[in-house]
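Changelog entry: the Transcriptional regulator record was regenerated in this release. Current contents:
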Amino acid sequence: MLLRAAAFLSPRNRKAVQQNEKSPGHLWTEAGELKKEETVTDKNINVYGEEIRNREFITAVYHLELPEGQDIVKKAARLAVGQTVGTWVPIPGITEDIREKYMGKVVRIFDVPSLDLFTQAVEGRRQYLVEIAYPSANIPEDFPMLLTALLGNDASTSAQVKLLDIEFPESFIRKFSGPGYGTEGIRKLMEVKRRPLLLNMIKPCTGLSPEEGAKVFYQVALGGVDFIKDDELLGNVAYSRPWDRVARYRKAAAAAYEKTGKKVVYIVNVTDGAATIEDTVQRVLEEGAEMIMMNYPSVGYSLFRKIASEVPVPVLAHNAGAGMFYEGSSSGMSSPLAAGKLIRMAGADMVMVNTPYGGYPLEHSKYLQILQKLQLPYYGLKSSLPVIGGGVHPGMVKKYVEEAGFDLILAAGGSIIGHPMGPKAGGRAMGAAIAAAVMKIPLREAAKESKELKAALELWGEG
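Regenerated structure tokens:
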């Protein structure tokens, strides 16, 4: 059976079809007669939101901009059809049953600002928010086809859109295990109940052998940090294999423990190619790795999900490169979706999060929304622990705690390694600032009891 043409043809072309019903490419019913009255109506393309909520649909909210005068209703319909059953020309085989079960539905269209009279229109371009529902039956419970279905068919739909958020039915999310440890699991593992945790990364980022890196690790560990991780730029390189780093750094951690009695966990970067990453992960685990890290934008959500679901240790998701997902104003995804909801679904126990305070021009509201997507209750998935990076020094601890609470990891790099009194003092300065924030003691008061904190405040200031 062939697709009914009138659903896709303009009035002018529909008239031509009526004049020549047997023209090549025209669409016919099983009886051989063109249904001239068939159109894309509210019945098969537009629905109320209430009609979708309790059905098996994935709803996506888009932002797009069009030249003034271009029909947003037709544009939205083309996106809904093109991302599901349609293509740029009428084709055979689409039945009413297929349309009902597998075609996208336009749920809502909002113009921004909202105008109801054409006399209010301003010349130029118009912006819209469009909500489209996609049948869950079209999309396997994994990321490749999810992103393809919601964003990947631009040549057919001719839509330059930005995906702002996705609402999933519970049955879809139940196929994702989410974080294995989550916030509470990390706290239990680290035996830290009520304070932000502290992380440092080995500097310089690259160029150190495992032996040289272990010396830096030891000095930092003496300062009382909770975690020390690889920089995201250091992966599986000839001069520093991840499994060799695990062996060396674990010895450094043990030596520091003998002096301080404080456990420090090394997080090894296993980011690697698809052909080798599983072998890399296996080798670091054999050396005793207690936590691993992957740069999720480069390995991809699906591979990240596979590794995270298989390893017995917590996984940190680093956001290096995530900007390619959300920095475009008319393409890609929003940062709360790309760097929050999706990576939590993929199983990240900890997630590196950019802030507006370290030089990166992230909108403050988006920063807060990312934190929410990682922490808010969501279909029973465990929460992911935010790892705050960028502009983290003792003078900023109070600000981060006020905005994010205690459930976060403060990733202090340069402020520890570059402390004027050395890395050990840098760790102690951050520890003193965290204690002050928890006990609500003014930093300057706390600095009277900590020369390391005092030196940090003199160098970097407060706030």
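The first strand starts at residue 57 and ends at 67.
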